[in-house]
Amino acid sequence: xxxxxxxxxxxxGGVGKALSGLVVQAVLSGADIxxxxxxxxxxxxxxxxxxxxxxxxxxxxxxxxxxxxxxxxSSDVVQLEWWNHPATIxxxxxxxxxxxxxxxxxxxSGLYNPIIPSGxxxxxxxxxxxxxxxxxxxxxxNLPGDVRDKIGVVSSSGGFDALPxxxxxxxxxxxxxxxxxxxxxxxxxxxxxxxxxxxIPGFKVNLIGDxxxxxxxxxxxxxxxxxxxLAFRGYTNDIASELASINVLAYLLNPEHYGxxxxxxxxxxxxxxxxxxxxxxxxxxxxxxxxxGLIVSTPAEFAEAVNWLSENPKGRQKIGMQAAEFVRGRFxxxxxxxxxxxxxxxxxxxxxxxxxxxxIFGRNPADWFLSCQSNAAFFYDDGNSxxxxxxxxxxxxxEQSKGTVFHFHKYFPDNQRLQQWSKTLMSLK
Length: 429
Known about the structure:
429 residues; alpha/beta; seven-stranded parallel β-sheet; six-stranded parallel β-sheet; 20 helices; 13 strands; globular
């Protein structure tokens, strides 16, 4: 029996979906692997933690230092579910941790912001990306060749058991939607402009997800003369029902977004919904143009793609069926579990090692924040910042979560540098 201890900030979003899919699949496969999950903060939403607990997997929420040390000591492999969450880095750096066999599974691409610190890659015995696009990250490309030998890719997936298989329908009318976060670090900041170029009477887009930026998006629609173009459906746990109401996914993301596997995208594709995406690194590894979806670059190309899908329902259905066949064959919970099990079995052949996470991230919460910034020079030691606001990465700087300075300041309110950087950024918003 190989004992795997997962360290994660929480069990929400993509990581919750992936880990719940992993442990449920582990029960089905009967693999000789025991999973235990530690979350470092309390859960806001419980759907994934309930799935995990119902599978028989232990979940420990906010353990004491002594509990965490004991869990690490008794584990064969420690799997760090990585993104730059302040609770994660605090747990790693606030105390010396026992020796461990460290496997890191990165749930951010590292291509833009946040970066993946090269020191973390060097410290791990196995470092896994969730998308091959991460090999293009600057910090990865600069690694010595022998280090790259311990890097792999395992796509995260919660499986498709809860989603209906695609159905071949008649000449159904075009219904367009978007699923996921409406923050502009993820959704394209010019999303409304792309949508407004579609010249189809009554054209509307159903937005499935939290209502972040609803007021801004509505004002953009009014300004462009399309006040009723967006329908805000809100957050739901019943993703299948919402997806069943659309047949085209207008999944246009910020060109410098942090995502990788894009669960919302592959879930929609698994139901035969045709995606329209931009030519971004993560998306183009999932969608093949005019085979499993459409790839566009400009608002005019997007409008052309929507018109073609509207006028060619049989072609749309063919692409949708091909999309479903592709993702249901590749992004399965079984494939994910098999791949991770291979790394666990290799991992136990290594000796446990003591890792100085302070040497990777620093000793101070402000340094922890800086360690994952693509251009730490934006933030000066005196607490002032020099932020260039011209590129797409700027939107990620203003999020209240996602490892931003505001996120870190929330966790460490007494840190003067984080306090000053937050104040300075707010003045630039």
